[in-house]
Specification:
Layout lengths: L1 H4 L2 H5 L4 H8 L7 E2 L12 H19 L9 H11 L8 E4 L2 H12 L5 E6 L3 H9 L3 E8 L2 E2 L1 H13 L4 E6 L13 H14 L3 E5 L14 H8 L6 E6 L11 E4 L2 H14 L5 H12 L3 H26 L5 E2 L7 E5 L6 H10 L2 E2 L1 E2 L13 E5 L5 H17 L3
Parallel strand pairs: 1-12, 3-4, 3-6, 6-7, 7-8
Antiparallel strand pairs: 2-9, 4-5, 8-9, 10-11, 11-14, 13-14
């Protein structure tokens, strides 16, 4: 009976195919998994967070155990502004229960059924599902080694505009892109912001990974470029997650952008989530105020660097020469291109039988626009020894594919 009463949107809603694929391999003994987007539990600052949680509840319990402000804790906002070096009014910051909620709120605030969102191809499935849930039409634009292809973007904008459709925003992950691992070059960032301003197309900048840089030079975010070079704080909405730097279980993120948009996103948070978790917000504020973030990030990056090195070394040693892959300087993923006639979806089933898991690249494209000769590998969860063993096995599976 209930199935007949489900709304049309619910009946059409996509589930998280990544979570389903990860779940399908979870109970395999001895599995080497490159599938999930999990940070290593060894990077969680458990001792410091444990002390802060206890202190906050004991000393500030009357406040933090009560209902909180839908827009987020002012103390955390102040510490975030100090950490990032901005002088912005609190009205331009929204604290949310995780980055996906912030992405969903922005989408709800801007998009009506049939409106267009331009996204990178490939792109983060969690966001694609959120966009699809509100009825957006997704227009993918290919990535190159410097990020989203601007010629492709301009062509897509011209085509969509000629069809009389409304483009609500461009979705991009400039730093250590999920799933590709690519980092957008400085010039491409600047050109993208300049183009968006000229066309008055907002940008949603998803930023979970920029602090996870192990080598090379850090680049300014799109929001920073818009703020510093174009004196604009409205064209880019930057969403920053704490999931990969403190712990995904804290469910904590924040958005910066236009005060009008932030206020509307806050209204959606009031309706859906009431408010983000007060205790985690105050703990994060204390973590920043006590100066832990800088040393903690250095520790994480030093911890992960050998994992990335192990992954790239194993890939160069064991993958066939006709396989291409990205070589990130940080983040948690790398991306593999197989020959065009090879399906990573089929390879996934063969790999699962050999106790190796990854995510086929087709899951990171809008429905009906998939590419199948690609896959995503996570390097932050398995040990360096497992990485070498797993990539060696994967290389043999790829070589045997044509046998």
């Amino acid at each position: 009976m209930i199935s007949e009463k489900l709304s049309q949107a619910t009946r059409n809603m996509q589930s998280s195919m990544i979570r389903e694929l990860v779940s399908s391999t979870r109970d395999i003994p001895g599995l080497i998994s490159f599938a999930g987007g999990f940070p290593s539990p060894k990077t969680f600052p458990r001792e410091t967070l444990g002390r802060l949680y206890a202190n906050v509840i004991e000393n500030e319990g009357e406040c933090v155990l009560q209902y909180g402000a839908s827009e987020g804790d002012n103390m955390l906002k102040e510490e975030l502004l100090k950490w990032e070096g901005y002088s912005l009014p609190h009205e331009q910051i929204l604290i949310t229960a995780g980055a996906t909620n912030a992405i969903f709120y922005m989408t709800l605030a801007l998009v009506e059924k049939g409106d267009v969102i331009i996204c990178e191809a490939p792109s983060f499935l969690g966001s694609l599902v959120a966009f699809d849930a509100v009825g957006a039409e997704l227009i993918p634009v290919d990535l190159d080694r410097e990020g989203i292809d601007l010629a492709g973007l301009q062509s897509a904008v011209q085509k969509v505009t000629a069809e009389g459709k409304k483009i609500k925003f461009i979705y991009t992950i400039p730093d250590f892109h999920n799933p590709s691992g690519i980092t957008m070059s400085y010039q491409r960032r600047r050109d993208l912001v300049k183009y968006a301003l000229s066309m008055q197309i907002p940008i949603l900048e998803d930023n979970p990974y920029s602090r996870l840089r192990f080598s090379g030079t850090a680049l300014p975010t799109l929001f920073r470029i818009a703020h510093d070079e174009f004196q604009n704080t409205e064209i880019v909405t930057e969403i920053v997650s704490f999931s990969k730097i403190l712990g995904p279980g804290m469910r904590l993120a924040f958005a910066k952008g236009s005060p009008i948009l932030i206020e509307r996103m806050c209204s959606w948070q009031q309706k859906i989530n009431i408010a983000p978790d007060n205790i985690s917000q105050r703990v994060a504020a204390r973590f920043l105020a006590e100066g832990h973030m800088g040393p903690h990030l250095e520790k994480i990056c030093s911890f992960y660097a050998p994992y990335l090195e192990a992954m790239l070394t194993a890939m160069s040693r064991y993958l066939p020469p006709y396989v291409q892959y990205t070589k990130p300087e940080g983040g948690i993923f790398t991306w593999v291109w197989l020959p065009e006639d090879m399906s990573a979806d089929e390879l996934f089933e063969r790999a699962k039988a050999e106790k190796i898991s990854f995510i086929p690249g087709s899951k990171f494209y809008p429905v009906g626009k998939e590419k199948f000769n690609c896959l995503r590998l996570n390097f932050t969860f398995s040990t360096p020894e497992q990485i070498e063993q797993g990539i060696k096995s994967l290389g043999k599976l790829i070589s045997d594919f044509y046998a």
